[in-house]
Amino acid sequence: MEKKIAVLPGDGIGPEVVAAAIRVLKAVGKRFKHDFEIAYAAIGGAAIDQFNTPLPEETIEICKQSDAILLGAVGGPKWDHNPPELRPEKGLLQIRKTFDLFANLRPVKSFPSLLESSPLKKEVADNVDLLIVRELTGGIYFGEKKRTEDGASDLCIYSRKEIERIVDNAFELAKLRRGKLCSVDKANVLETSRLWREIVDEKKAQYPEVEVEHNLVDSVAMKLITNPSHYDVIVTDNMFGDILSDEASVITGSLGVLPSASIRGDSFGLYEPVHGSAPEIAGLGIANPAATILSVAMMLQYSFGMKEEAAEIERAVNAVFEDGYFTRDLATDKEKALTTDEWTDKVIAEIDTSFVSD
Ligand code: NAD
Ligand code: IPM
Ligand code: MN
């Protein structure tokens, strides 16, 4: 069955890592005999420049007609002083909201071959396999924003329903994994966090096989670095999830390897790396495409039910790391670092080789 994918490259390194991921997708299509129909559309700064809006109607239409969305990254200094409605990031927030993609899954797994690249001690970074379930369409990101004469405010607001659905999602995912759920909040200060904690406690009875702990976000920020293998599933609000996921990338060695899926409970989803547009390395051809390539694997698995194909991408990425090939962000010897395209070629060769030997 042919699957339609809307591809939104965005800004900075977005187009570079998306191009790499599409090459890998095509290799997988060839190997497993799938046709993927790809429709490109504009988002972020690129869309502002072309259409004077960060999320054009045409892009929304293309996404509506697709089975899934692949997104690179948005943002950059060129648009940093634009008014709020004309910021690239607004396009990203709008697309998440438009498609009600309330659950952002951000897996963090240590690759044995990358342990040298992590600033953490090997024994700390080893054996980490956690999943951050970040609420994505509510909280302080979407509450009313105001500027007054002598100040500014951002409202943090969550409805019961918004919390219930993300918490249910996290419990379900914990059931499928090691059965441990850590709910992260700031219940010692914030009312939204107190409601969040109450709801997690109410839901516990429905999931007796899941072991639940509550933890305050400041302390989790510390424990995530001192004892990351303690965690299985972490469920948290929009803002805390954003911050903790970049922090967790340190465990793996680079932000350039963390993928994500933004879903809503059916097969539709938006897939994007956790990282941003990295303007300082844009155009140099040195960005790590692994996060976007692994986001494609998440797309194949979650949106298309192609488990074997997804596993093949993960296997290939892992094999290339095992062979000692790295982009600049991960290379301990920078002289030997591969470019984005060279590293992607290795992944594709890995996929093709296994095709021949099958
Ligand atoms: P960033 O994630 O773009 O970069 C943080 C650091 O990680 C930089 O040193 C960067 O060079 C490095 N890095 C990120 N991805 C990399 C990759 N694939 N390979 C190698 N190195 C990589 O965060 P930032 O610098 O704070 O933000 C830059 C812009 O990106 C801002 O405009 C921000 O709003 C935007 N942003 C967008 C998204 C998104 O589109 N999902 C996410 C985060 C930030
Ligand atoms: C992310 C990014 C976005 C977020 C920004 C660019 C709006 O940091 O996807 O993690 O905060 O959600
Ligand atoms: Mn972020």
UniProtKB/TrEMBL annotation:
GO cellular component: cytosol
Entry keyword set: Amino-acid biosynthesis, Branched-chain amino acid biosynthesis, Cytoplasm, Leucine biosynthesis, Magnesium, Manganese, Metal-binding, NAD, Oxidoreductase
Sites annotated Important for catalysis: Y141, K186
Record localization: Cytoplasm
Cofactor: Mg(2+); Mn(2+)
Enzyme class at the top of the EC tree: oxidoreductase
Residues at which Mg(2+) binds: D218, D242, D246
GO molecular function: 3-isopropylmalate dehydrogenase activity; magnesium ion binding; NAD binding
Cofactor annotation remark: Binds 1 Mg(2+) or Mn(2+) ion per subunit.
UniProt GO BP: L-leucine biosynthetic process
Residues given in the record as NAD(+) binding sites: G76, P77, K78, W79, D80, H81, N82, P83, P84, E85, L86, R87, P88, E89
Residues that, per the record, bind substrate: R96, R106, R134, D218
InterPro entries for this protein: IsoCit/isopropylmalate_DH_CS, IsoPropMal-DH-like_dom, Isopropylmalate_DH
Residue intervals of the Isopropylmalate dehydrogenase-like domain: 4-347
Catalysed reactions listed for this entry: (2R,3S)-3-isopropylmalate + NAD(+) = 4-methyl-2-oxopentanoate + CO2 + NADH
Entry superkingdom: Bacteria
Catalytic activity, EC: 1.1.1.85
Oligomeric form and interacting partners: Homodimer.
Family: Belongs to the isocitrate and isopropylmalate dehydrogenases family. LeuB type 1 subfamily.
Purpose: Catalyzes the oxidation of 3-carboxy-2-hydroxy-4-methylpentanoate (3-isopropylmalate) to 3-carboxy-4-methyl-2-oxopentanoate. The product decarboxylates to 4-methyl-2 oxopentanoate.
Protein name as catalogued: 3-isopropylmalate dehydrogenase
Origin species: Ureibacillus terrenus
